[in-house]
């Protein structure tokens, strides 16, 4: 059966175009990516399409065993509750989750670190009707026990608060890592320095607020942890090539 969704411009990289996606084709495409768990979910957070990797990770034999279920239905404990709560937030707010570092369960007894991205799917009226996303394994030669859960918790706190006091030193302390080890760690996972990673998270949050709200630029600057309008404008232009005001007009 062929299923199609409309993805709004805010949820993809195709400018102002609205793209029709055949999720069955995408599902088959991602079947060839064993290090990625691909999924499409409806407005209730139930799987509409998945790839073979997601099925095998949870110990099932066929995609039909997963379709219609939620993460909490196929995985016990936090490994099922956390993604279900993430889905609920994306579906409720329409805000994407991007490159979120988290530990996931890979059966039979093999937790793995993943970077998860989830984008809201909108209908032609702009209503959120589902989400699409994937979790890709962290492909680095770092044993799982050397990736501290404190690092993921620190990033989650930062993404939630965007506190101005967050620096590489703050991130290292919260993660229980030395500055040198943190730098090697972020470079191997994200191909970014800690400073670049922090800037990326701030700019991504600011970009969303510029697109989705009418808040003044200076208010967005402060909300995203920049000390003032000028510092925000410089950082935003450096990252995107345009000023925040121009970016807002182009959205």
Automatic annotation (TrEMBL):
The keyword Transcription applies. Residues 152-250 form the HTH araC/xylS-type domain. CDD domains: PAS. Pfam families: HTH_18 (PF12833), PAS_4 (PF08448). Keywords: DNA-binding, Transcription, Transcription regulation. Gene3D superfamilies: Homeodomain-like, PAS domain. One of its GO terms (molecular function) is DNA-binding transcription factor activity. PANTHER family: HTH-TYPE TRANSCRIPTIONAL ACTIVATOR RHAS, HTH-TYPE TRANSCRIPTIONAL ACTIVATOR RHAS-RELATED. This is HTH-type transcriptional regulator ChbR.
């Amino acid at each position: 059966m062929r299923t199609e969704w409309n993805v709004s411009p805010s949820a993809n990289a195709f400018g102002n175009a609205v793209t029709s996606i055949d999720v069955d084709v995408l599902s088959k495409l991602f079947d060839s990516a064993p290090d990625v768990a691909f999924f499409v979910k409806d407005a209730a957070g139930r799987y509409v399409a998945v790839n073979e990797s997601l099925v095998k990770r949870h110990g099932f034999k066929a995609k039909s065993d997963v379709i219609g279920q939620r993460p909490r239905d196929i995985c016990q404990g936090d490994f099922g509750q956390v993604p279900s709560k993430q889905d609920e937030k994306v579906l409720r707010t329409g805000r994407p989750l991007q490159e979120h570092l988290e530990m996931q369960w890979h059966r039979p007894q093999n937790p793995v670190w993943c970077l998860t991205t989830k984008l809201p799917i909108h209908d032609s009226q702009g209503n959120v009707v589902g989400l699409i996303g994937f979790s890709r394994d962290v492909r680095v030669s770092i044993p799982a026990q050397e990736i501290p859960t404190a690092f993921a918790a620190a990033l989650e706190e930062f993404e939630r608060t965007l506190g101005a006091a967050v620096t590489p030193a703050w991130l290292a302390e919260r993660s229980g890592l030395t500055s040198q080890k943190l730098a090697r760690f972020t470079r191997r996972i994200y191909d970014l320095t800690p400073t670049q990673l922090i800037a990326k998270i701030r700019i991504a949050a600011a970009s969303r607020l510029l697109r989705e709200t009418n808040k003044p630029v200076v208010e967005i600057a402060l909300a995203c942890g920049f000390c003032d309008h000028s510092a925000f404008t410089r950082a935003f232009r450096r990252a995107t090539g345009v000023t925040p005001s121009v970016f807002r007009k182009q959205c």
